[in-house]
Write a structure and sequence with these properties.
Elements lengths: L1 H21 L3 H11 L1 H5 L7 H8 L3 H11 L3 E4 L4 E8 L2 E6 L5 E6 L3 E3 L4 H15 L5 H13 L3 H9 L6 H18 L3 H10 L6 H7 L5 E6 L8 E5 L7 H10 L9 H9 L6 E2 L2 E2 L6 H13 L9 H10 L1 E6 L4 H50 L7 H18 L3 H26 L8 H23 L15 E3 L5 E3 H23 L1 H11 L1 H6 L4 H24 L10 H14 L4 H21 L4 H18 L16
Antiparallel strand pairs: 1-2, 1-5, 2-3, 3-4, 6-10, 7-10, 8-9, 11-12
């Protein structure tokens, strides 16, 4: 009896100890995780750290505090004993907490702690692990960060946590949560009907995250099966010799261990020659080995005797290819899900193609506005005056350099731009007047001499720019409000600079029409252009009008240079990049007609972008094809798209 009482007393004392051993507190659990994974924590790798992070997160609040510090690069090692600690700066010192228990360890100098600095990949794993609990954090920034982490790396467990935190006081975050929940449903929900419904809920969505969620569903693997399972989700069945080469198909069988390696004729002959015994090989006389079927029989006999490695003859290869089915099988097992994903992706691709066409049209319209802006001045000097000015591109270059110089004195980009535009007009207007007075006025009605003279001026101006500014490209920086893009979706966007150039081109179109049709200068220009002698008899000075007209065209080229310099390289060759297109714009559109210049710019801009779309890797080829097209076009319509009807149509 005493023995029994003693045993029961010992058992009663042992029970609390056993209970404590079976239900250790979280701090002990965390300490154990840290001890078991110390090397991984000190030197983590993105490929292997996820299980460690998950184990730490599962230990409770202190584990999450450790992860938060680790992700914030506030986790370190105390040098004196290599204890893992959470740090917080306090002036020149560092406050320490025990990472496993949260106990206050006081403060130490900063050089007494070695901080752990996980890379961005490891921090991403940590963020994803903590995202589930942070989805309901009172701080909206923490909730937004958790959504970002889940968007980068979510899983089925976090889908459950996300569904529990869909209600959010911030409507923007609530919308993001709802969208992310549908995306994760597509990828991780075990119910196929829920996944199909989630795919259908996106309707015509073309966003990149939706397409990314569909792609894994439609991933396929190529397999060879002798018997196709009834529930196999087949994407395509491949016929050897048509959809897949016979060699590749048989290589699949060999790699999978379903068939022996192929026997080449040369290897077969060499092997048979090594096994000739008494004029026989595998029971087949040597004299008969000239026949392929006899050689196959001999080799098969050697295989059966175990004298050679098994290998497949051509007939055996054919038989194996006929026996097996070669399939592309979806990684997703449910056919309803893949059907929904495939239909959604087809619809998305159609809409993306339409958006790409819209984006290409915007690019073409933008390029057309650039060409039109560069050609307006030439439309005046060449289209109205009939002067072939090969230095027109250098006036564009002078305008761009004027903008650059202004920015060296005015730091504010908006103010510098407001100063640079009129100043570029003044500088290039003066340069144009000087060129007209010194060179052009002596060469009117002599187009060849004018071309050669202005070509020489062009070379001289380029060299002068190199001497002053050097050969390196100079920056002409756009204001911050222009250094962005108008984005409609993931596909369609256009930069504010190009929009500004488009608006500027329309402004100068309107200005040209007003000057030529509503002002005395325009009336005098048209009069001098149509009949200089008659205009002179009416008191109009042809020399003065020619000078002002040439200066006006040059000044507009200078303003175009400032606009073009905001997105192009400002170098001495800037003008030469646009002179050919400017002449083509004026000639193709119709000499002497501003509406023709506009039409020519549109034709060349859309044509060049269209050719580049077919061959995006070679823009030089696109320009070559465009020039060939223009040459052919002029053969059939030498007076341009909108031909001027006589000299009286100058201002039309």
């Amino acid at each position: 009896m005493r023995f029994i009482l003693t045993f029961l007393a010992l058992l009663a004392l042992a029970l609390p100890i056993t209970a404590r051993a079976q239900s250790p507190d979280l701090a002990t659990d965390l300490a154990g995780v840290i001890s078991a994974n110390r090397a991984q924590i000190e030197k983590p790798s993105r490929q292997t750290i996820a299980p460690v992070v998950a184990a730490i997160a599962a230990t409770g609040p202190q584990g999450r505090a450790l992860l938060q510090a680790w992700g914030d690069r506030a986790l370190g090692l105390r040098k004196s004993d290599r204890l893992l600690v959470i740090t917080a700066p306090q002036g020149d010192a560092m406050k320490l907490l025990d990472a496993a228990t949260g106990a206050d360890l006081g403060t130490v100098p900063k050089d007494e702690v070695t901080l752990l600095r996980p890379n961005s990949g490891v921090r991403g794993v940590i963020s994803a692990a903590m995202a589930g609990t942070a989805l309901s954090d009172p701080d909206p920034k923490r909730r937004a960060g958790a959504l970002d982490a889940l968007a980068r790396k979510g899983d089925a467990a976090q889908l459950t946590l996300l569904r529990q935190a869909l209600d959010d006081p911030d409507p923007v975050l609530a919308g993001r949560k709802a969208r992310l929940e549908r995306l994760l449903t597509i990828q991780y929900d075990p119910d196929p009907a829920a996944r199909v419904a989630a795919i259908g809920s996106f309707g015509g969505d073309t966003a990149l995250d939706f397409r990314a969620s569909l792609n894994p569903i439609l991933t396929t693997r190529r397999v060879a099966l002798e018997t196709v399972p009834a529930d196999a989700n087949i994407a395509d069945e491949l016929v050897p010799g048509r959809d897949i080469s016979r060699e590749a198909a048989y290589a699949m069988l060999v790699d999978a261990g379903l068939a022996p390696a192929r026997l080449t004729p040369q290897a077969e002959r060499q092997t048979l020659a090594q096994h000739i015994v008494d004029g026989m090989v595998g029971g087949v006389p040597v004299a008969q080995l000239g026949d392929e079927a006899a050689r196959d029989r001999a080799y098969t006999a050697l295989e059966q005797q175990g004298l050679v490695q098994p290998a497949a003859s051509e007939a055996e290869v054919t038989a194996a290819l006929e026996r097996f089915h070669f399939l592309d099988v979806y990684a997703e097992a449910d056919s309803d899900v893949t059907d929904a994903a495939r239909a959604a992706l087809r619809g998305t691709e159609t809409r993306i193609a339409m958006m790409q066409a819209a984006d290409l049209s915007l690019d073409a319209l933008s390029l057309a506005s650039i060409y039109f802006l560069a050609a307006i001045g030439l439309a005046i000097t060449f289209g109205v005056m009939g002067v072939i000015n090969m230095a027109h591109g250098e006036f564009i270059m002078m305008g761009a350099y004027t903008g650059y110089v202004v920015q060296q004195f005015i730091a504010d980009r908006t103010a510098s731009l407001l100063v640079a535009l009129p100043l570029a007009f003044v500088v290039t207007f003066a340069a144009g007047v000087a060129l007209e007075r010194l060179v052009i006025r002596h060469l009117y009605k002599r187009p060849l001499e004018t071309l050669l003279a202005t070509f020489g001026v062009s070379i001289a101006l380029q060299q002068l720019a190199k001497n002053i500014f050097g050969t390196q490209a100079r920056p002409l920086t756009a204001p911050a409000w222009l250094d962005r893009a108008l984005t409609f979706n993931d596909v369609v966007s256009i930069s504010y600079i190009r929009i500004a150039i488009f608006v500027l081109a329309l402004v100068f179109l309107a200005l040209y029409l007003v000057i030529m049709n509503r002002t005395r200068l325009g009336l005098e220009v048209r009069a001098v252009t149509q009949n200089p002698a008659m205009a002179a008899s009416m008191g109009i000075s042809p020399d003065r009008i020619n000078m002002l007209t040439f200066g006006l065209g040059s000044g507009i080229a200078g303003i175009a240079g400032v606009a073009i310099g905001l997105f192009a390289k400002v170098t001495s060759e800037l003008g030469s990049d646009y002179i050919v297109q400017s002449f083509m714009t004026v000639v193709v559109g119709g000499v002497g007609n501003i509406w023709g210049t506009l039409a020519g710019a549109a034709l060349i801009g859309f044509l060049q972008k269209g050719i580049e779309w077919f061959n995006p890797a070679n823009t030089l080829a696109a320009q070559t094809y465009m020039i060939l097209f223009i040459i052919i076009f002029i053969q059939f319509r030498p007076r341009g798209i909108i031909a001027a009807k006589g000299r009286a149509a100058v201002g039309a």
